[in-house]
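Hi again,

Forgot to attach this to my earlier email, sorry! This is the prediction with CU-O-CU linkage bound. I've pasted everything inline since the attachment limit keeps bouncing my files.
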Amino acid sequence: MLNRRGFVKAALAAPFVPSLAGFLSSRAQAEAGKTLKAAPATAQLVPADVAGPTPVWAFNGTAPGPVLRVKAGERLKVMVENGLDQPTSVHWHGIRIANGMDGVPGLTQEAIEPGASFSYDFVAPDPGTYWYHSHDRSWEQNARGLHGALIVEEAEPWAGADRDLVLVVDDWRLTEDGTIDESFGHMMDWSHAGRLGNVVTVNGSYRPKFAVRPNERIRVRLINASNARTMAIGLAGTTARLLALDGMPVGLNDVAEPVQLAPAQRADLLADFAASETPLPIAVETRDGPVPIAEIVVSGDPVREASDDPIGLPTSGPGVLPNLSGAKRVELLMEGGAMGGMSGAMHDGRMMDMRALVDEGRVWAFNGIAGDMDEPLARFAKGSPALIAIRNDTGWPHAMHVHGHHFRVVSRNGKPIADPALRDTDLMMPDETIEIAFIADNPGKWLLHCHMLEHAAAGMMTWFEVA
Ligand code: C2O
Ligand code: CU
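Structure tokens for the complex follow:
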């Protein structure tokens, strides 16, 4: 058995923790509470013989927090209490929400001060896989564990799967003694890929095992909750079909695996697990091949003949592209970061060179502005089509996220996309240009930012207004 030092050394050498035998965990997550309390807690993130529980920040004592469930069209009321010693807020990622409930301090609400609480109360219109997370100092609060799954169920239960399996995948940076590495705010992370971790957990556990029966048909809801790590996740022993991306149905045509998820992205897979004597790994692709992050243990009586065709599959895809003629077109140029060649940007109302920006913790810019929020990127008339042309003129990938709306990537690098999915987050590679389109039909002030949380904090953030 590896000792503590050996474990962490190995973990730091490889991007993911190597296999350790005999570690079994399953976390029963509570159903939707009416209260989410953010407070310090502990979580057993690595095998207990490697290190003890890690001090984390948690909702209702667990990291991730409880799985919240609500039916589409119904109201979710959650009282968020702040038991931290710093302000916080909760953002309901991907929900086409009423603006005042979006959870963005300084834009849609005041931050929730220590000891205070805020009552979130909103209707979740679209069924799908969503998540909630801290949106104040999220580069620290999310990394310490303040997030969880938000499942919006079909108004009429869907008979296509026997059950759900919600998998919140997270990437932690731990020290040798199993505590959270407190190198938050490190400019090396902020100007490069963001804070990458050295331990990947699923539902807050190291390589948990999940029991299924042969040919059981499971809707696997994958959520990438990491600060900055993009992961391509594959399921062994099944031909999974892709049901949805970022909560929105894709029409079930695609081969799903491995499915690449940037930070904040989700994918729903429909998986029939074949009978298997050995556990079936759920694995993340790395340069050295797939590394397991969880295991499916198949046992018991088959649920059905393997040859059964799936029933009740959703036929609806992403729908038709809205008419974009007359769309207001806005340009968004992304610059900065290490090796990006940005010479300076506006911050605090004046032009700063890179050295001055670094002193301010700003190393990225949108349209030459390093994260200043005084003016919106654009104003759209309510109900009008919006077209945002985004150019990644940096040396790094970015996970571009729009609040309050789902968008379609209608072109990439000048090539139109025929049947674009509805997404709330798109992964852009260096030098890529995309055009995203949506109907600006949700009134209010909405963020548009990179979901590599260090990039957002260091300048990759703006907002638009729908009025
Ligand atoms: Cu999931 Cu503005 O974030
Ligand atoms: Cu980014």
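The chain has five helices and 33 strands. The longest helix spans residues 4-13.

That should be everything now.

G.
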